[in-house]
Structure prediction request, 554 residues.
Amino acid sequence: MKLSLNQATVKRASVPEVVDVCVRNGIPAVGLWRDPVAEYGLERTAALVASAGLEVSSLCRGGFFTGVDQRLDDNRRAIDETAALGGQCLVLVPGGVPDRDLVAARWRVASALEVLAPYAASAGVRLALEPMHPMFCADRGVVSTLGQALELAAPYPAEVVGVVVDALHVWWDPALAADVRRAGPRIHSYQVCDWVTPLPADVLLGRGLPGDGHIDLVGLTSLVAATGYDGYVEVEVFNEEVWARPFDSVAADLVRRHATGWEPVVDGGHDRLPVTP
Amino acid sequence: MKLSLNQATVKRASVPEVVDVCVRNGIPAVGLWRDPVAEYGLERTAALVASAGLEVSSLCRGGFFTGVDQRLDDNRRAIDETAALGGQCLVLVPGGVPDRDLVAARWRVASALEVLAPYAASAGVRLALEPMHPMFCADRGVVSTLGQALELAAPYPAEVVGVVVDALHVWWDPALAADVRRAGPRIHSYQVCDWVTPLPADVLLGRGLPGDGHIDLVGLTSLVAATGYDGYVEVEVFNEEVWARPFDSVAADLVRRHATGWEPVVDGGHDRLPVTP
Prediction:
């Protein structure tokens, strides 16, 4: 599975910087974020990645459907931007629980897809709904399992509405293997990072480089590959320490880990977690 | 549903102090922890709660089955202690993932139950396996959903191996309503606290008093009651601010919230979470 670098992994890199980093390190694809793309310019970004020979494995992100404003206009713009970039999918973050009504919040995700799926189909853009770790259910993502994301996607053709399989969000799920198999062609994006302990104060930044934590990424990658997934494995890490490193150091590290089955290069192999008594 | 005060909610209270707090505030049951019980003495604790007319809704805790040492001897002692206290159940925390093999860790929970269930049956003690929020999967609890806990309990009689339904751990689960119904007589303990945002630096302490967060506790309590559950609703909150308050203030607050359907007494009603854009 070929490697892609999500721009958030080198958060301080501008669009031309992340493109250069990919090219210099032989990474054939990039996952882009809307804000830095807007800053550099949508058309300029499209031209730059094309001339660099990079694929855009994903655009992050649309979604946030659960508030009073379902943000449908903004999501239509995100679909247009994905089309302009030739992106392989638009990642959709569901949104949190604005009050205590989790069931209603989940219905709002379903109703937003009803509106956006036809729009995306016309634009030739694949929507990738992201099930999010239950830790984010209250404030970010009410779609909590891959199975639930697949049920929300089910009314639509697989090439229009699919899912993101992000290792951090789904690794704990007892139904994971069965649901990855069931997802089949609906896997529009496969993202990796690692679950590290202890979590930092801001859990949103609690992501390690693949190989630094507790997730069996080799096993999960095999499961995803067995579905016939022919996209990229995109590394998306939100981590202050990683952000503080030079971009090329991060990219070279990821290329090396990717080649060795996500083994971090440290003496003594992986850190093992002691079981808390 | 009658109220019980888990000792951890007033963490700095000794056994006689928590017993006094319950009696003074008209709380008819207490959830005890093994360390303070050992400190005060097992037989003295049993005599004290009996003479105070309190029930022991749970003893926390056994489990931690996933390490090299499955801690079976310690768990047998915990079963004996539960019997000595007349506790309604022994809470079992599954344990985390000592390496990257989550499937093996889950098997170790199953194999520990095979040994402990007959021992508990002989002692007349109910084991209550606690599914834990997936946020704790790596370092504390590999049983991540109520459905998974029920599958682990299924080989045994309901009065021997059941589950804890702790609102914090299960509130996000899309299968929750169905699984609570399915649990029926296997619900040996019902615990409440609330999910607050943002989470504090130590997520283990990220629990609010019931009514202060995002969980629909009224809805969940109805679901649990509809199974015929006739035990207590036990408040278990790990929270530094709550621990800093006088014990009686916490207890009186809980009695009031319990009586009003977990409404916190603040002007303007509940805080509502803005959906993060």
Confidence is low (pLDDT under 50) at residues 266-277 of chain A. Chain A touches chain B through 46 residues (CB under 8 Å). The CA atoms of residues 62 and 92 of chain A lie 5 Å apart. The beta strands of chain A are 3-6, 29-33, 55-63, 90-93, 127-129, 161-166, 187-192, 194-195, 207-208, 233-235.
